Amino acid sequence: MKQKLLCLFSLLIILVSLFLIFETTKKITYISLDDNFDYTATSAIFNNSPVPIPAQVAFETPIKRVLGESSEGKRIYVDLTNQRLYAYEGNTIIHSFLISSGKWGQTPTGTFRIWGKNRYSKMSGGSVALHTYYYLPNVPYIMWFANDLVSPAKGFSLHGTYWHDNFGHPMSHGCVNMKTSEAALIYQWADPQTTENGSTRATKESPGTLIVIYGQTPRI
């Protein structure tokens, strides 16, 4: 009897271990490219905890372009070590903002291009078992980026953030979190250009702004 109980216990340990391995390695990512704001959404989930969707996210007035007017030499640098984004035109820093890079997922480093922009999108992913699950309707001012090694299907982006305000510290699952008002500024400054409240995709004739991500995310 004792031996049978030990066998059952061992089997249970094996099953639990397999479940945790599965939950750890699987990647749940859902990205909706629908630009329509979901007015029926009243709450979101971040790391298994519900968070409210602020009313102003639904009714924000897009900020007019106030950074530079030139399209020449636009570049975005994301410094993971110091958790800061810099917008350049030529050799001039137009603006710098605190960001939050990946904590529960790695933000890739390298040189990228913005391949598309969405005024709103729904994102979800993570793991319920590991308390990293997120379900975020109406993520605002999204600038998707990719390169030859990191495909658009990976879903990395710069975007506005309403579920935390801990900028300057890693807080994301891999994307670059920004204050929504600051993401709006970069959204309307960066290429490819779009109309107010609009979304767009980069083309050969209208390529996206260069993004350089470097450094190492601090371990917290």
Characterise this structure.
The protein has 220 residues and is of the alpha+beta class. It has a single domain (28-214), classed as L,D-transpeptidase catalytic domain-like, CATH 2.40.440. Helix content is 18%, strand content 35%. The protein has three helices and twelve strands. It has helices spanning 2-25, 55-59, 180-189, and strands at residues 29-32, 43-46, 49-52, 74-79, 84-89, 92-98, 110-125, 134-146, 157-161, 176-179, 200-201, 210-214. Strands 1, 2, 3, 4, 5, 6, 7, 8, 9, 10, 11 and 12 form a twelve-stranded mixed β-sheet that branches. It starts with a helix and ends in a 6-residue tail after the last strand. Mean pLDDT is 83; it is low at 16-30.
What is the topology?
Elements: H1 2-25, E1 29-32, E2 43-46, E3 49-52, H2 55-59, E4 74-79, E5 84-89, E6 92-98, E7 110-125, E8 134-146, E9 157-161, E10 176-179, H3 180-189, E11 200-201, E12 210-214
Parallel strand pairs: 4-12, 9-10
Antiparallel strand pairs: 1-7, 2-3, 2-8, 4-5, 5-6, 7-8, 7-11, 7-12, 8-9
Order of helices and strands: HEEEHEEEEEEEHEE
CATH architectural designation: Beta Barrel
Describe the largest sheet. Answer: 12 strands, mixed
Helix content estimate: 10-25%
N-to-C terminal Cα separation, in Å? 47 Å
Give the domain tally.
1
Would you tell me the overall average pLDDT?
Answer: 83
**Tertiary shape:** globular
CATH class, named: Mainly Beta
Number of strands: 12
Q: What is the number of helical segments per DSSP (H or I, 4+ residues)?
A: 3
Classification by helices and strands: alpha+beta
Strand content: 25-35%
CATH topology: L,D-transpeptidase catalytic domain-like
Our Rg estimate from Cα atoms comes to 20 Å
According to CATH, the homologous superfamily is: L,D-transpeptidase catalytic domain-like
Low-confidence stretches: 16-30
